[in-house]
Design goal:
176 residues; mainly beta; eight-stranded antiparallel barrel; signal; DUF3455; DUF3455 domain-containing protein
Length: 176
């Protein structure tokens, strides 16, 4: 639990400027956003991917993703929201998104120590209008860190936070 507490304290103290997605970032076709959508918000996430140790049917222990916990900042370093289990995203204005279970996320692995890049279909989890209200897709790119520890857990129920950073790009339908 100490790593989680430490991560929570660090999250409360940091604010890293997040440059917007540049033209030099090549998005793999497997996670490309379908036609008819435009990016409406790009943020930087800095936090942890939380893993929990579980035993399989044979009693072998393994790390399983429990969820993220990250602070979202804009290009100026201003805190604009948070990302947490579900997966869920909540903007500072209270608008909130959750993964749309009707569509499986698409992923592309970009490195051994880095969590994959993703495209996730989302839906509003709050009728309150806000920055995230019209968002339909969230793309996670430029990831660093966050993969489960290579060393097997020692006992069931243990949780650990693995530091990660990423950019999240939010897409809404193009208005005609």
């Amino acid at each position: 639990m100490i790593p989680l507490l430490r991560a929570a304290v660090v999250l409360g103290l940091i604010a890293i400027p997040a440059p917007t997605r540049g033209a030099d970032v090549e998005i793999p076709k497997d996670i490309a956003v379908p036609a008819g959508y435009k990016d409406v918000l790009t943020v930087k996430a800095k936090g942890v991917q939380i893993y929990k140790s579980v035993a399989d049917k044979d009693g072998k222990l393994a790390w399983v993703l429990d969820g993220p916990l990250a602070e979202l900042t804009d290009a100026k370093g201003t805190r604009v929201g948070c990302h947490f289990e579900g997966p869920s995203w909540e903007a500072a204005d209270g608008s909130r998104l959750v993964r749309d279970e009707a569509e499986k996320p698409r992923s592309v692995s970009k490195g051994n120590a880095d969590i994959p890049w993703l495209l996730i279909r989302v839906k509003s989890d709050d009728p309150k209008p806000g920055a995230l209200t019209k968002v339909v897709y969230v793309q996670r790119i430029e990831t660093s860190g966050g993969k489960a520890p290579a060393e097997a857990p020692k006992r069931t129920g243990t949780k650990i936070g693995v530091p990660y950073e990423a950019k999240y790009v939010f897409f809404a339908p193009t208005e005609k």
